[in-house]
Here is the input.
Amino acid sequence: MASNLYPHLLAPGRIGTLELKNRIAVTAMGVSLSEDDGTVGEQLIAYHEEQARGGAGLIICGVAGVAWPVGAVAVGQTAISDDRFIPGLRQLTDRVHAAGGKIATQLHHGGFVAGYSHARWGHPLWGPAIPPAPKGNFIDYFLTEELARLAGMKAPEIKVLEQADIDLAVSQFAAGARRAKEAGFDGIEIHGGHGYLLSSFTSPYTNTRTDQYGGSVENRLRLTLEVIAAIRAEVGRDFPLWIKLDSREVGKPGGITMEMAKEAARLVEAAGVDAITVTAYHDTGQGKLHSESNIPHVENTNLPATAELRKVVSIPVIGSGRIEVATADETIGRGEADFIAMGRKLLADPHLPAKLAAGEPDKVRPCIYCYTCVSAIYMGEPARCAVNSSLSFEFRGEPGPAPAGAAPVAVIGGGPGGMEAARKLAGLGYKVTLIEKSDRLGGTLRFASLAYEPNERILEWLRREVRDAGVEVRLGTVATPALLREIGARHVIVATGANRGMPPIPGNDQDHVFSGDDMRRMMLGESSDELKRKTGLFTRLATKVGAATGATANLALVRKATHTWMPLGESIAIIGGELVGLELAEFLTERGRKVQVIEEAPRLGKGLTLVRRMRLLAELAEHGVGLHGGATGVTIGKDSVSFTDAKGEPRTVPADHVIVARGAEGDLSLAQALESEGFTVHSVGDALGVGYIEGAIRGAGEAVRAVASAA
Here is the structure.
């Protein structure tokens, strides 16, 4: 059995009286899939049911509001604040159990973070004391169109809790626990982290009280310990109960530290919890920190703290935070964690546990850490996933298998949209031919994978899936009506990408000015007449040799080689500050270039999800990249770029080379031509307008549904 691959991660485990088939937990996440009135409906049930089918040992259903709508942090949040919510919750647990899963709920009160509760219902924010003002303003990272959604929001009132309020909160947690048990949940996690109500009392940064709930660690934990005691009195000693605790607070001087977390861990163990989920939190005013603590960008960020807390308690600890599968197995094997809770990985592929158990780790659809999931929540929408178009839409079910005698389907374009459509259709039993005019699959995702390495994981996965699904791939082939008729296709999916021409910028015809397509071809060993004119003999030779030897097909090798040599000068101006331009700026800065990014829109980062944008813009600024939004009158000179900045001041920046990373637009010409020839055409991806990976994958899923429904 393949469990030998990950013997520790796939071994059975126990939390209190709860027996679990493996050590993989779906971490508690607010995914905004409950109904508007807080009840659990089909959308959330189907989402968790799919995770149960996928083989996770434990599902932790996130942020069930014990005081809802007070303390609510997001639209579509689950409520457990009244007995009327029990029937929906019972339906959820019944369906998860029927699918072979175990499910716990997470009891939650948003406290200071309950901005949604304030914005919608006008409730004050509950907390121990008036908190310090945020140090930064993460609103600075919102695009203009995103800011429009926040118009009219007012600063919330703060409710400093008195004893009666504290007693009410404790009783609400206890009543929520009773409902959880009645609804059939297998366990309860108390949310004691992330700046929410209990965490705000625990942290000396936000808790400046001088009564019995302030001062020492034990006093600051008093509310949490009272909640644990009240829940135990309600559900009994044998019901599985654990707590999520912050191991530290990033960007909050004087906040929770590792030593405080150790003391807190000892106290909650003594109070009767069966396990501790280890997390961290941050100052929400600082944009970059949103990917530095509980949803970290850096691998294994929270594992050292997990190992430290594991030393001071005798109950299991649950680690989390961008942990690769092999690392998860090794961590458990070393005794530094007992379970690993996964979030983004199981959104990207809820069947990860089952695929590992079957000995098929390469079949796991990889997360690319783009923050589409959490950024959607920030913007008041249900969770989405860039690589898994079924996330949040599980309730629709998958299309049925191809009927007997179904006509073959042609897919034109071997980028992410084309590969996703082809593999899905082939998996349903359709005969699929994938036609790509270049000599390899990947499209612009290959170039995107150079700039951002996690993209290569989904590129390689899609290539493998296309191969394993038995798709007929025709490379170096131009799709014509005659070819499509020869194939016998009636339905044609067009995923040919966008046109990326050079926009009309004065000076754009000079040899030191590259379009995005020029850069892509140069880095990937391709050529064009335009590129030959702009590059020297040595560059052309190197490109040719790289293509001939296959070196430029190895993206890891190209990433490494470009640290040593690239045919670009020291100072680079990038015209275009959307996703492509900013990731290119990151790539070039890492290779020692001095980069200026010039963008006409007032704010940079369109195409990047909010959380990824906050991190990338901050890191580019830290590395000295010039970020110029609101630029007008852009003109390219011989060795510089001139423009008028957002303040109306003339600016000139040096530029040995200029890269124009804008001008992409959808191209439906092929789709329209094929429709006129009588084919049923479904356009996906950038052919419809630039939507990047998420748009391509989502469009492919919709096209497959359309083909299947018409079959």
About this structure: The chain is about 35% helix and 15% strand. Residues 537-542 have pLDDT under 50 and may be disordered. Residues 163-182 form the longest helix (20 residues). Residues 389 and 698 are 5 Å apart (CA to CA).
